[in-house]
Design a protein that fits this description.
Elements (H helix, E strand, L loop, with lengths): L9 H21 L20 H6 L1 H5 L3 H5 L4 E5 L2 E10 L2 E10 L2 E2 L7 E6 L5 E7 L7 E7 L2 E8 L2 E9 L3 H5 L3 H8 L16 H13 L9 E3 L5 E3 L14 H17 L5 H4 L10 H4 L2 H4 L3 H17 L20 E3 L11 E3 L9 E2 L3 H11 L4 E9 L7 E13 L5 E7 L2 E2 L2 H5 L6 E7 L24
Antiparallel strand pairs: 1-2, 2-3, 3-4, 3-5, 5-6, 6-7, 7-8, 8-9, 10-11, 12-13, 14-19, 15-16, 15-19, 16-17, 17-18
């Protein structure tokens, strides 16, 4: 069935393309999710420990009267784990005792192993301890008093994975405890392995990312643009030849990546026409059915699922999946997210986070946490991300209007990153998260391989029919 409705209004597609082109040079250097991430993170079994340093300043800082604690002078200290900075900060109605490991000569409050005690200025009572599990402002545990025990929250890249886990020890005892004791007391509940990813497991995915980057200079954006099974540039709407200069829109670019993975295995690229078939039996409702022809609201979602079904079938022919929904990401790993990214406090209040809906997926603001969990649980996968929002005018349909390819991985320095490719360019997760039009995102799992042979777009000065070797 042919699609004659545009996926994005031409003006919006052009504006998005111009924005992406402006970001391309920056993204080549830093088109990844980083939020100030630091290299050198270790498995949690080797988390930098400061128990001895806390004990040394217990009376002068951690348990001292507030006036004495505020008078504490910042200092550097060294233990078996390395160099640390110990300081006290005052913000609003609280004081913070901070034990931060030094990376070189630089202190980062959110470096892996940082330990921050928050106390009330009014009466000096302890309110919470934050311990950073990875060098990210939104990846930590928060432990707070609960009678003669403690409660603990575990947060990964903004997603609250565990909430109010009971630790059977008083808060005073926590102040004298190594992190390994917290792990031991909660190991029956918390999957601590999530925070010790092995960079070696992502080497193949890193090779694929490098292969895509290598070929980006030969690509350009064109509204409604894709390449067909013979590599020739065509319009998605009617399969007519593209005028020069030929290019790819977001859907065509996603197909270009899939083509590059498919050809080394099958010997051919994918045809456009079958990817356009509407999956009426798998999504939508009687309400949306009457808009299928006029508005084509599910085009992007159907396209992403069709690409997944075909690539999995090519790379793993023994895995016959009749349903195009087979590779959807349907997990709902957290129902709360952090409200702020302040390393010192970050606010102890969380915001509710919706479930993973069948078609719409998850709220885009939880994408970082979701991608981290997928990366550590399924290393080597990448994801087609179909973004959607409800129209602001009647009939207020949810429309799936933009497709991106997301590659979450851990680099050789132990840093979690997400490479983002959309509309014939590399951008960043920050760009996506900052766009208010991207309300929800449906993720679709994709297999990877370091072998990559995509179509070659003709140069604007050459015959548009010479599109590379099929």
């Amino acid at each position: 069935m042919e699609n004659t409705a545009p996926r994005l209004p031409a003006s919006r597609g052009l504006l998005l393309a111009l924005a992406l082109l402006a970001l391309t040079s920056l993204a080549a250097a830093q088109g990844v999710y980083q939020t100030g991430a630091l290299p050198g993170d270790l498995p949690l079994s080797r988390l930098p420990e400061n128990k001895d340093l806390r004990e040394a300043v217990m009376d002068s800082l951690l348990m001292a009267p507030t006036n004495a604690a505020l008078a504490f002078r910042s200092r550097d200290a060294v233990n078996a784990w390395g160099a640390w900075n110990i300081s006290v900060r005052r913000e609003r109605d609280a004081l913070y005792a901070v034990f931060a490991p030094l990376r070189g000569t630089v202190r980062h409050d959110y470096a892996q192993g940082s330990w921050i005690l928050k106390r009330s200025l009014a009466d000096g009572s302890p309110l919470q301890v934050k311990i950073f599990l990875r060098s990210d402002r939104n990846t930590f545990i928060r432990v707070y008093p609960f009678g003669d025990r403690c409660l603990m929250d575990v947060v990964a890249y903004g997603g609250v994975l565990y909430h109010k886990v009971i630790l059977p020890l008083p808060f005073d005892a926590l102040l004298n405890s190594p992190f390994s004791r917290i792990m031991d007391l909660s190991s029956a509940v918390v999957d601590w392995d999530l925070f010790s990813p092995d960079p070696a497991l992502y080497s193949g995915l890193r090779d694929l990312i490098a292969g895509i980057r290598l070929r980006l200079p030969g690509l350009r954006f064109a509204d409604d643009g894709a390449t067909d099974a013979d590599g020739a540039p065509v319009r998605i709407a009617d399969l007519s030849p593209q005028p020069e200069p030929a290019g790819l829109n977001c859907s065509g670019f996603a197909k270009w990546i899939v083509d590059g993975l498919a050809k080394p295995v099958s010997g051919r690229w994918l045809a456009v026409a079958p990817l356009k078939e509407r999956m009426l039996d798998y999504r939508g409702s009687s309400f949306t059915e009457k808009y299928e022809e006029s508005m084509d609201p599910f085009f992007g979602l159907d396209w992403a699922r069709a690409l997944a079904l075909r690539l999995w079938g090519i790379m793993y022919p023994s895995r016959t999946e009749p349903s195009p929904l087979a590779y959807d990401v349907n997990e709902s790993p957290f129902s709360l997210i952090v409200r702020a990214a302040d390393a010192l406090n970050g606010d102890s209040l969380y915001e509710p986070f919706s479930a993973n809906f069948d078609d719409a997926g998850i709220e885009t603001r939880g994408l970082s946490g979701m991608l981290y969990l997928l990366a550590v649980r399924e290393p080597g996968r990448w994801y087609l991300a179909e973004f959607s929002a409800r129209s602001r005018v009647e009939p207020r349909l949810r429309r799936y209007f933009h497709l991106a390819a997301l590659f979450p991985y851990v680099d050789s320095d132990g840093v979690f990153r997400v490479a983002v490719f959309e509309s014939a360019a590399e951008t960043s997760l920050q760009r996506i998260l900052a766009d208010p039009d991207y309300e929800f995102v449906k993720l679709v799992r994709m297999p990877s391989s370091p072998r990559f042979d995509p179509p070659v777009l003709p140069s604007p000065a050459t015959d548009a029919g010479q599109a590379g070797t099929p």
